[in-house]
Every structure is written in C-alpha cells, then in structure tokens.
Automatic annotation (TrEMBL):
InterPro entries: Peripla_BP_I, SBP_2_dom. PANTHER family: D-ALLOSE-BINDING PERIPLASMIC PROTEIN-RELATED (PTHR46847). This is Substrate-binding domain-containing protein. It is found in: Cell envelope. SUPFAM superfamilies: Periplasmic binding protein-like I (SSF53822). Belongs to the bacterial solute-binding protein 2 family. Keywords: Signal.
C-alpha cells in the first residue's frame, strides 16, 4: 500500500493548483468601505444633560500641533457644548512633562474624568494615572487602542477603541486589487505610537495570508525623525528595488516626506494610507501619487469618545468601541472632502443627529 500511496501523493502535490490571491474578499471589503457611513448607536439612549449636570471632563491629546488630534479634541468640545457640561482641552506639544502637568491640573481643579486622546501612550504615565484615580478621577483613552487585538490596561478605567485592524486590511486589500495580486510594498510606521502595531500587523498579515505572490518590507521611522529620515529611507528602498509598486505609511502625514522620495527615485509607486488628513487629501486631488486614503470623521470620533466617557461617569453599561466607520477616499470622491479638504467633510453628518437623539437632546 505504501508503494502505491506515496507516488500518488507526490503526483497530487505536483499538479496541485497554485494558490491565488483572494480577490473577491478584497473587493468586497473595499466596496463596503466606499459607501457613505451610517450611524449605529453604540449603546442605549440616555439623558446626557441630566447625568452630566454636575460633572466635568478633561481631554489631553497626544499633541495639539497635530491637526488630527486637534480635530478630535474639537469633537469633544462640540459634544460638551451640545450636552451642556464643562470640558477642558489641554494644550500639549507631544511632551511627557506637558501630559503630566495636564493630569495634575485636572486633579487639582476637580475634574471628574481625564481622557488621553489620539495615540497618547498612557503606559508612560502610570504613576500619575494611579495617583489621579486614587483621588477619585476616572482616566480613559480615546482612539488609542485597537478594538480587537489590544487589551485595555488595568491602570485605566476604560477606553473607547478603534478598529485599526480593519483599516490595515483595507489598505492591503486595495494594493492587492490594484496590482492583481502582485504587490511589492514598502510599509512604514512609528513603532512608539500605540496604534501602529495593529495597523502595521494588519497590513503585513493580510498580504501574507491572502496574497501568496505579494512582497513586503517594513521600516520603523519614529515620529520625531519623520522630517529627516523618512525621505532617505524610502528613496534608498526604491532605488534598491525599482519594482516596489506601493508605499504604505500607516499614518498619511508621512506622505509629505514620501512623495519627494518617489519623485527623485523616478518610481511609479503609489501611496495608500490612513487618517484622511486634509493636506494629504489635497495632495490626492492635485496629483497622482497619493492614490487612496482611509479616513474617518474626527468630529465623529470626538463625539463618540465623549459618549463613552459620559456613560462611564453616569454608571451606564460601558462602551469600548467607537462607532466611527472607516471610509475610502479616491480621485472619484475626494472633492467631497472640500477644497481645501477638512477632517469632517465628505463623510456626511448623520452622526450629529444620531448623537443628539441618543443623548435625549431632541
């Protein structure tokens, strides 16, 4: 039996069909996130005005210098104005000393909750967070951790998390479809930022699992080195391998340093990324190197983060996943983002009426 079985098995392996990229799933993912976002309530309706009447919230962004963080903070400010409670948006320039000062100020001035927003790494501030909580202050994070792959640390009271894995999959799926399963991608990101890992891994793993002929390489470029190290790193990679057809920075603000590298290397590589940063959407509208960008309404993010925090302060069931859909911008719809583009145009405004109704304001 063995003499008959083994040759048969060898023949079966020899003539087995080659693995192919899963194009149908990739196209379905792209189609789903090319539709205008709809509002899905993150939890039951509640009387936000009544339960927040004697409470106040303190928001500490990663840095106000980043328009991304500033736009999320504005969403918090707008939500607080709708409901009618005190909220303070702390000024910081990506400086741990400034983050610590913000925590100390919130505790000293009797705020009920501190939210660390938009990538600020709470792991650097555990002693200060622990001290704040010992004084009765709730400490949370918004738009910082992945909803499925990262656990909310025990030193936080809660967190409103983003589906970064899906964003990474969309980026990878797009490149896969555009190249008919022949991606050769350079992926870049700053490893010190909390959301980088799920985004980076989702891109790399999606291509590994779904595209047998795709190739990738990854370069870590810390945020503080973007202006000096991104362009030479990309330029050197493109010159070393002219077949690279996609550059996939996990955050689209890196694009300003990548475009010159592509041009100098005389490469046909395209950029696909995440964040929907206005100047990058403007680059897409005015040029052809930035091909696709996955964005989300940051005003919506701020309102959703406020919703999760209010539920925590009001003793309601926790909400740990932001209800902010990822949305694809391309040449075909980038004009809807405005000229110049903004962080909120192009997504529709269903969230405004949705949250107003959810909070009992209409």
């Amino acid at each position: 039996m063995k003499k008959l079985f083994l040759p048969a098995l060898g023949a079966a392996l020899m003539f087995a069909p080659a693995a192919h990229a899963d194009m149908d799933a990739a196209k379905a993912l792209i189609e789903k996130h090319s539709k205008l976002p709809t509002f899905e309530a993150p939890g039951p309706a509640f009387d936000a005005k009544a339960c927040m009447a004697d409470k106040k919230m303190f928001v500490i962004p990663l840095t106000n210098a980043n328009p991304f963080n500033a736009a999320i903070s504005q969403g918090f400010v707008d939500a607080a104005a709708m409901v009618g409670f005190e909220l303070r948006d702390w000024e910081t320039q990506m400086d741990p000393a400034g983050w610590i000062q913000g925590i100390n100020t919130a505790v000293a001035e009797g705020f009920d909750l501190i939210d660390m927003q938009g990538g600020l790494p709470p792991e650097f501030l555990v002693p200060q967070i622990t001290e704040a909580r010992s004084n009765g202050v709730k400490v949370t994070a918004t738009h910082n951790y992945d909803a499925t792959t990262q656990q909310i640390p025990e030193f936080l009271d809660s967190a409103a998390n983003t589906d970064y894995v899906t964003v990474g999959k969309i980026i990878a799926a797009w490149a896969m479809v555009q190249t008919d399963g022949k991606v050769n991608a350079l992926v870049l990101g700053p490893d010190e930022i909390t959301p980088t890992a799920p985004l980076r891994d989702a891109i790399l793993n999606y291509l590994k699992d779904n595209c047998p002929d795709c190739k990738t390489q990854y370069i870590n470029v810390p945020v503080n080195d973007w202006a000096t190290k991104t362009q030479p790193a990309v330029q050197n990679a493109l010159l070393a391998d002219p077949t690279i057809n996609y550059v996939l920075p996990v955050y689209d603000s890196m694009s300003q340093f990548i475009v010159p590298a592509i041009q100098i290397a005389n490469s046909d590589a395209k950029i696909v990324s995440y964040n929907g940063t206005p100047f990058v959407l403007d680059m897409m509208r005015d040029g052809d190197i930035v091909e696709m960008n996955v964005g989300e309404s940051l005003g919506w993010v701020g309102m959703a983060g406020t919703d999760a925090n209010m539920r925590l302060l009001c003793g309601l069931d926790p909400v740990t996943v932001l209800n902010t859909p990822a949305f694809i911008f391309t040449d075909e719809n980038v004009a809807t983002a405005g000229n110049p583009a903004t962080f909120n145009d192009g997504y529709g405004d269903v969230h405004k009426a949705g949250f107003a109704k959810l909070w009992g304001l209409e």
